[in-house]
Write a structure and sequence with these properties.
274 residues, WH-like_DNA-bd_sf, Arc Repressor Mutant, subunit A, Sig_transdc_resp-reg_C-effctor, transcription regulation, DNA binding, single chain, 3 domains, Beta-Lactamase, five-stranded antiparallel β-sheet
C-alpha cells in the first residue's frame, strides 16, 4: 500500500528525519526535498543538521557543519564543569581560531566572559544584545570585536535529566537580520544542541578515561577490521591503497598503546569506540 506522510507529522519524522535514505513506499519521496523546503524550511534545516551531526566523527566536526549550514561565523559548545554530575573539567569545542582560544585560556577570560557567566546562572536562551555588562565584561567583548570574531550572538542552555549543563553559542559579525535569522532556526538549534550535548558527553567521558581520539580514517579502518575485513577489502571499501590502510591501522594501534592489531580491536570494543 502506498503511504503518505504529511510533512512535519510524526510519521514523516520517523521515516525521514535524520536518515539519508528514501522511504520507498512513501508517495512524497520523489519530491521530498523540494516539498519540505517549500512547505517548511525550518524542518528542512533540522533534517540537514541532524544528518550532519549524528554521523560526525567528533563534536568539533559537528560544529563545523552547523557553522556551514546555518551560515554563521562561529559556533561554540561548552560543557560546564560540575563535579556533582561527573563533569570535573570543562569541555569546549569551538570554531574560533586556535590563537584566540589560547589567548582566552591563558588570560582566564572565562571569568569575565558575559555569555558564559549568563549561561551559568540560568537555563533560558538569550541574545547577546540582552546582556547587561560590567566594566570587565565590556572589555572582554571589546577584545572579541577587535579580534574580528563578532559580538552578535545567540546562546542556548541545555540541562539533561542528570543535571549536566551545556551551552551552545552561535555568532557573527554582521548584525543585520540576525534576530529574524535566529527566529527562523530556533527549533533546529534546540534539536542540534541536544544532539551535540550527547556527542560531547561521550567525548568528555572518553577524555576522563584517558581514551585516545582516533582520526576518522583510523577509526574506519579499525571498525572494518573488527568486522573481519582484510587489508585489501578495507582498501576497496574506502577507496584507499592497501599500504595506506596498513598505515592507518598502525597509527590506531600505537594510539591505543597496543602491541598487536587484535589487541587494538579488543581495546576499542571494550571502550565502546567501535
Amino acid at each position: 500500500m502506498i503511504q503518505e506522510h504529511p510533512v512535519g507529522s510524526a510519521s514523516f519524522r520517523r521515516n525521514h528525519l535524520g536518515t539519508g535514505k528514501r522511504h520507498t513506499s512513501c508517495l512524497r519521496c520523489a519530491s521530498l526535498q523540494t516539498e519540505v523546503m517549500k512547505q517548511n524550511p525550518a524542518i528542512w534545516t533540522q533534517m540537514t543538521l541532524t544528518r550532519a551531526i549524528l554521523p560526525a566523527n567528533s563534536t568539533a566536526e559537528a560544529i563545523q557543519a552547523i557553522r556551514k549550514i546555518l551560515l554563521v561565523d562561529h559556533v561554540t559548545l561548552h560543557m560546564l564543569n560540575n563535579p556533582t554530575t561527573g563533569l570535573d573539567n570543562p569541555f569546549v569545542r569551538t570554531t574560533y581560531p586556535e590563537g584566540w582560544v589560547s589567548r582566552y585560556l591563558l588570560n582566564n577570560m572565562a571569568v569575565t566572559d558575559p555569555v558564559l557567566q549568563r549561561a551559568q546562572q540560568g537555563d533560558t536562551p538569550f541574545f547577546w544584545s540582552e546582556l547587561i555588562l560590567n566594566a570587565d565584561q565590556i572589555r572582554t567583548m571589546e577584545e572579541f570585536g577587535r579580534a574580528g570574531l563578532g559580538t552578535v550572538g545567540y546562546s542556548l542552555v541545555h540541562i539533561d535529566p542528570h543535571g549536566r549543563k551545556s551551552v551552545l553559542s552561535i555568532s557573527r559579525v554582521e548584525s543585520r537580520g540576525w534576530d529574524e535569522h535566529i527566529e527562523a532556526h530556533v527549533d533546529s538549534l534546540e534539536q542540534a544542541h541536544m544532539d551535540l550535548h550527547v556527542k560531547a558527553l561521550a567525548e568528555a567521558a572518553a577524555d576522563a578515561m584517558g581514551i585516545p581520539h582516533l582520526a576518522p580514517r583510523e577509526y574506519e579502518c579499525l571498525r572494518f577490521t573488527a568486522q573481519g575485513k582484510t587489508y585489501s577489502e578495507i582498501a576497496i571499501i574506502l577507496n584507499l591503497s592497501e599500504h595506506t590502510v596498513r598505515s592507518y591501522l598502525k597509527l590506531a594501534r600505537v594510539k591505543l598503546n597496543c602491541v598487536s592489531l587484535a589487541q587494538a580491536v579488543a581495546k576499542a570494543v571494550r571502550y565502546k569506540m567501535i
